[in-house]
Amino acid sequence: MALACAEVRGQEQEQPPAPATLDLHIHLFGTGDAGSGCRLSNRITSGWQFNLLLSRFRGRAGTLDESYVVTLVEDLKASGLARGLILAQDAVYDAAGKPDWKQTHFFAPNDYLFRVVDQHRDLMFPCVSINPNRADAVDELDRCVDKGARALKIHPPTQNVDIADPKHTRFFQRCADHRILVLVHTGHEHSAPVQDIGLASPLKLEPALDQGCTVVACHCGTGWPGDKPDMLPDFLTMLRKYERLWGDSSVLCTIGHAADCLRLIDDELGRERLLHGSDFPFPCAPIAFSGIVKQDELTRIRTLDSELARDLALKDALGIGRTCAERAHQLVAG
Ligand SMILES: [Zn+2]
Predict the structure, then answer these.
(1) Which of 62, 174, 211, 248 is the most buried (most CB within 10 A)?
(2) Residue 279 C-alpha to ligand 1 middle, in angstroms?
């Protein structure tokens, strides 16, 4: 008996550890009240979404910048995820490639991102943000790669950049040379003022992919019911054309995106190329999947302490949770 137990213990010890998981869409933001350099426009700070989110962080530290990071670190530690990919957010740039602060509603600088991630290296990877319209875009890319960036994020409809413009070819060639993962917002945007929604089309990813970049189409071209145009079919078409194209599941488990989430996961290739992302601090909405996920499971998910854990658990219940999070870790850290 004792021998049998020892054998069982031996077998247990031989089990390989579960593959590491990653959430690849976590925002860094702040107002700059602790010298972070972050900016948020009045249009954002006076909106209901911001004020709802603020109630979760306010007062956790002396400033909003610090309160946000304290909340994020605590949530990440409680999430069960190995790490998060933390996103900076670049500005809008004018025709001369200089920052246009009047048109910029949300800004989180790369240097602040590196400062935060350096303090939490066991939990975070940095994803810088570089608007290809900036005059020094290639230099900034080289600098960020030197500092350890594994990924970069572009948000065309709010940063007012047409990534399919041939003038950006050199920038994407350089991204491919560096083998940096390129995350691009696709689909409809409801959290920040949009300059041109046509810039969010998944078809705009074609030139970057043609340069050899590995690209993540954030949100997979999804939107709310009634949003026009419907960009999800274009994303699914692009998946079939480009093996280096992935989608992320960020924001998909909110009320507005639930219908498109179900359309996406109905597609086999859509599921196979999906990477886990939450869009933290934006919360998921278990109620949006009543009738799809069992009620007792939705109740259990609601009781989880961590926002990131709730998002992962809800996606697990839909079959796009842990596997997508392991895939995301493999792509970013592998
Ligand atoms: Zn996002």
Answers:
(1) 248
(2) 5
Instruction: List all residues 6 or more positions away from 158 whose beta carbon is below 8 Å from its beta carbon.
Output: 92, 105, 106, 185, 189, 192, 193, 194, 195
- pLDDT score recorded for residue 281: 95
Question: Ligand 1 centre from 30 Cα, in Å?
Answer: 15
- Distance in Å, CA 174 to ligand 1 centroid: 24
**Full DSSP string of 87-98:** E-B---B-TTS-
Rounded to the nearest whole angstrom, what is the distance from the C-alpha of residue 12 to the centroid of ligand 1?
A: 40
CA of 176 to the centre of ligand 1 (A): 23
- What is residue 4's predicted lDDT score, i.e. its pLDDT? 46
- The 8-class DSSP code of residue 305 comes to S
Report the C-alpha gap between 248 and 100 in whole angstroms: 29
When the pLDDT of each residue in the chain is averaged and rounded to a whole number, the result is 94
* Å from CA of 26 to ligand 1 middle: 7
Residue 11 has pLDDT above 60, yes or no: no
Q: Specify whether domain 20-333 bears CATH 3.20.20.140.
A: yes
Give 158 Cα–ligand 1 centroid separation in angstroms: 11
Q: Give residue-wise pLDDT tens across range 235-272.
A: 999 999 999 999 999 999 999 999 999 999 999 999 99
Residue 309 CA, ligand 1 centroid: distance in Å: 17
61: exposed, middle or buried (Cβ count in 10 Å: 0-12, 13-18, 19+): middle
